[in-house]
Amino acid sequence: MQDILINWSPQETRVALVEYGSVQELHVERTLERGLVGNVYLGKVSRVLPGMQSAFIDIGLERTAFLHVADIVAPFTPGSRPMSAAPERDHRGNASAMVPIEKQVFEGQSLLVQVIKDPIGSKGARLSTQISIAGRLLVFLPQDNHIGVSQKIPPDLRDALRTRMQALIEAAAIADGNGTAPANTGGFILRTNGEDASDAELADDIAYLRKTWSRVRDLSTRLPPMSLLHQDLSLLQRVLRDLTNEETQAIRIDSREQFEALQKFGREFMPKAAEKLQLYKGERPIFDLCSVDEEIGRALGRRVDLKSGGYLVVDQTEALTTIDVNTGGFVGARNFDDTIFKTNLEAAQAIARQLRLRNLGGIIIVDFIDMVRDDHREQVLAEFRKQLARDRVKTTAGGFSQLGLVEMTRKRTRESLAHMLCEPCAACNGQGIVKTARSVAYDVLREILREARQFTPREFRIVSSPQVIELFLDEESQHLAGLSDFIGKPISLQSEPAMGQGQYDIVLL
């Protein structure tokens, strides 16, 4: 059984998924970091540039957005059918160049457009007239009839999935059309995480997406140009769509305003999930109920302590994540083999939880403690796979390699918790280590000698961290004085507390 806790503030939304009193997942969304990609607007063509085969569209932002002819697939004008962007034909009937933009749009025209690239610097957002609405398992293409399947799904499964999808789409269309399926039911793309979805889950996603598109079309006929018609779901709304399931007991939120807004959204699109919403009125911060903030702090560290006394070491790099299991102070079993086995069993459970908590994706290498007995290895691997099966994100785990490592993958769905909340250390530039003060001091001495051969200042001044300056004043003072005599110039020192241990400047006076 699981509970969902939502901590809302104007600048940030934080969501914790709690199972049996333990935090399993953390989701964070910051208001200023939400982009515009996926937003659907009723734009107004402000200028057409035939020479650039592009147009500027006013969608109500500070800068007009940019629409290139290559992104015009099926322009939709409210109250009319989508136009065809098929290539023109020559006198023999062969396809020629794409229809010029000046023949497809005109100044003052209202167009339904979607942002495909956020504004950057002085450039406005980039638009497309091909609308796509993303759901949890599917992507809806209302101007298309094609049923696609993610290329990441094995080819031998795609035909069967298309057949399932076709039947579900037709059933949904017949239900909407009171017994008759309309000619155009829209196109769908099955996403990678929909490979193992049930018919009921896919049908729910189809219904949600068709209802969302119906609302967009309705708003396009009632709202004035430059209006926002659809926005990709916020984290709050995705809680109802993506995180809530039959095991969810309650969704508690600490903001009355957001509780009421989420209730309204849920009643329209996800009534079953909306029934589980509760307004939290306690005096303690909602995240204090399950020590969520402490869990966040631990999830950002390298070391994860196990209850038995063992521990994990988690290292995240560009290419992969490595997780090392260590016995630590655990010596409570009858013999060493049992100690290792029990530590690895506990580690298997903890690793699966850390993957969800930190949202680690891509290639993951787990180095369990070496086990002599085959049955111990099999039990640890079985427990690990059992825990991974609880993960909503697709995971695959192999067996033990010749080196005793377990290789696995976990689908990347969003940035990891560390990448979202942290940045590279200014002192070590993300390396996790810094040069010793003595190494920096010797770098400084070599740099002064190099510059003394090129320049002839009155004086050299070393600006560095207190640790390096202290070393020059004490243990390295003789070497500094010797260099000053050798180059024939005085060398002064300036301590700068704001500098990291590996930083320094040499000022020529």
Total of DSSP H or I helical runs spanning 4+ residues: 12
C-alpha geometry? globular
Supply Rg.
Answer: 30 Å
Name the CATH homologous superfamily of the largest domain: Nucleic acid-binding proteins
Which secondary-structure class do the elements indicate?
alpha+beta
Q: How many separate domains?
A: 4
Write structural notes for this entry:
The protein is α+β, with helices and mostly antiparallel strands and 509 residues long. The chain has four domains: 2-34 and 234-288, Nucleotidyltransferase, domain 5; 40-87 and 98-227, Nucleic acid-binding proteins (OB fold (Dihydrolipoamide Acetyltransferase, E2P), Beta Barrel), CATH 2.40.50.140; 302-421, Aminopeptidase; 437-508, Ribonuclease E, catalytic domain (Hypothetical Protein Ychn, Chain: A, 3-Layer(aba) Sandwich), CATH 3.40.1260.20. Helices cover 31% and strands 25% of the residues. It has twelve helices and 24 strands. The strands form five sheets. Strands 4, 5, 6, 7, 8 and 13 form a six-stranded antiparallel β-sheet that branches. Strand 5 and strand 6 form a beta hairpin. The N and C termini lie far apart (70 Å). The model is unreliable at 80-96 (pLDDT under 50).
